[in-house]
Design a protein that fits this description.
Largest sheet: 6 strands, antiparallel
Strand content: 15-25%
Structural class: alpha+beta
Radius of gyration: 25 Å
Distance between the termini: 43 Å
Helix content: 25-40%
Shape: globular
Length: 543
């Protein structure tokens, strides 16, 4: 819904409602003159307006519109939306396994839960769901509750969706079988070599710090001396959890993050003496989807020169929302402060009040300006330069965390043929069929993921079956595109089979061989000279 389409009496209602709510929530003795004026206006609407007015509906629409005018992250949630907001951080539920946000009447997939139904068919963060079971949900007046009711359903039932994906001109169709969605924070944990451990954290939930401590303890028992912490695609979560995990890396009494706003005094989070990984090489992997709590961890590690940040500039979500419950069980998430790293850098990228569309085009703007391909295309004014606290090297503010070592995005690994095979479920069907038909045989031949990784190859029969399924799905087969994507598709197929045979970590053990950010992080962590040079600001961030 466009804000400009709200009628004048709706605008008046929304202003009045929020002022009345503020008065009730904070026990102010009386309304301000503006509040009294708006209250009188609402009374006149109710008593004089030509038609009946559904006050509750007007109020909800009005509050949503008002908050959209403030910043990209202030929002109103009804009762069902409050419940849905908390589910990615705790508990289990039946569904398709995504977290999403409704912005400008479009459902944006924010996160795909590891191992869930949506990930299995190929839904990706950044996808926009346009149709659900042939019902248009984009560009229409539909709140989160309506969307959730269409996507949720009992385990084993199916839902068909059509999505718009960046870089793909036509809508992609998926059939998703709903399932019980377990919510874990650790996607993967394993030893890369005798000294280096890898932990991939997908969110900062209530149990994430306990999960991280358990993973850390397990890997240290296996000999871990160095750690790669993968925060790529991690959209954030709970502030305290981010602080608790950062506490593992820094000595006692160090500032992790502080928040401050016009009406909020400075609030600091500092480390304790309980850190279990204060020594050893540390590399943090980030990309353009790493946001909020991920940026707090990466920023603190960078500011204290504790480790090397590798990847691409992070999302830039540095606004603090306070959850303000309303009397009827609904909630306002109101931005009250900003996050700042220990050096005083603001994490929040620039935004224009009320212009959410432009804010959401940030990724495409980065691509257009060349930032995703070349680090030297990014220009920082002197006012955004900061100095780290130990080694006194230069880091940058102004939105997101700029890595110490830049890794460009790979624009050549996926062809249209590969995208179509993923979107139509062909890749998923192939891997499920291979495991279902040969599970016992595969496990006997490859009793662990390392033997599977070293010795298993995709059989020719699977490629022949791929061509058959492509024909059934009316996918145009182009030999040149297949040859271009063949290597990566084979690795992807192998990784998906490994996940079904073993566990989620097995997927990353294999797919990380094709992950440029991971590979550069591994190279840096095992090259002490390069690692030290980056921490001292000697080597360039450019790959």
């Amino acid at each position: 819904m466009n804000y400009n389409q709200i009628t004048m009496h709706n605008k008046i209602t929304l202003l009045l409602t929020l002022l009345i709510v503020s008065s009730l929530s904070f026990a102010q003795p009386r309304l301000t003159p503006d509040g009294l004026k708006l209250e009188r206006t609402l009374q006149m609407i109710n008593s004089l307006y030509v038609d009946d007015v559904e006050t509750s509906k007007l109020t909800e629409t009005a509050i949503r519109a008002m908050l959209r005018e403030l910043d990209p992250h202030s929002s109103y949630l009804n009762k069902e939306e409050v419940k849905a907001m908390n589910e990615p951080l705790q508990g289990n539920f039946d569904g398709i396994g995504i977290s999403f946000n409704m912005l400008t009447d479009t459902l944006y997939v924010m996160e795909v839960i590891s191992g869930g139904p949506s990930q299995k068919v190929g839904i990706m963060p950044g996808d926009k769901i346009i149709y659900v079971n042939d019902s248009l949900i984009a560009g229409v007046k539909m709140n989160n509750q309506n969307v959730v009711s269409k996507l949720r359903g009992p385990k084993g039932t199916a839902v068909n969706v059509k999505i718009l994906r960046r870089g793909v001109s036509e809508l992609l169709e998926f059939r998703i079988i709903r399932d019980k969605i377990p919510i874990y924070s650790i996607d993967a944990k394993y030893m890369i070599d005798r000294n280096t451990g890898y932990i991939r954290l997908s969110r900062f939930g209530i149990s994430s710090s306990e999960e991280f401590l358990a993973a850390e303890k397990e890997l240290k028992a296996k000999g871990m001396k160095n750690l790669i912490l993968d925060l790529t695609g991690n959209g954030g979560g709970i502030l305290q959890t981010a602080s608790d995990i950062t506490d593992e890396f820094l000595g006692a009494g160090k500032l992790v993050v502080y928040t401050e706003g016009k009406n909020q005094p400075r609030y600091e989070l500092r480390t304790t003496s309980l850190g279990n990984f204060e020594n050893g090489n540390l590399v943090i992997l980030v990309d353009e989807s790493s946001a909020s709590a991920s940026e707090i961890v990466a920023g603190a590690v960078q500011d204290w020169d504790r480790g090397v940040v590798v990847g691409r500039r992070t999302f830039g979500k540095g606004l603090v929302q306070r959850q303000l419950p309303l009397p009827d069980g609904t909630m306002i998430r109101l931005t009250v402060a900003r996050y700042y790293t220990p050096t005083g850098r603001s994490i929040q990228k620039p935004y224009e009040e009320g212009n959410i569309d432009e804010y959401n085009r940030d990724f495409s703007n980065r691509m257009k300006h060349g930032e995703m391909l070349h680090a030297d295309s990014i220009r920082f004014p002197d006012s955004l330069k900061y100095t780290t606290l130990i080694n006194k090297r230069t880091v940058y503010g102004g939105g997101g965390i700029m890595p110490d070592y830049f890794v460009p995005i790979d624009t050549n690994s996926v062809t249209n043929l590969h995208r179509s095979l993923i979107a139509k479920g062909v890749i998923n069907k192939l891997t499920i069929g291979e495991v279902d038909n040969n599970r016992a045989k595969l496990l006997k031949s490859y009793p662990n993921v390392q033997k599977f990784k070293s010795n298993y190859t995709i059989p020719a029969s699977m490629i022949n079956r791929m061509k058959e399924l492509a024909k059934e799905e009316k996918i145009e087969w182009k030999d040149d595109e297949f040859e271009k994507s063949n290597h990566f598709m084979s690795i992807q197929l192998k990784a998906l089979i490994a996940r079904d045979l073993y566990d989620a970590s097995a997927y990353f053990v294999i797919i990380n061989d094709e992950n440029d950010i991971f590979q550069e992080g591994l190279r840096i962590i095992n090259n002490q000279k390069l690692y030290n040079n980056l921490l001292n600001g000697i080597d360039s961030i450019v790959n």
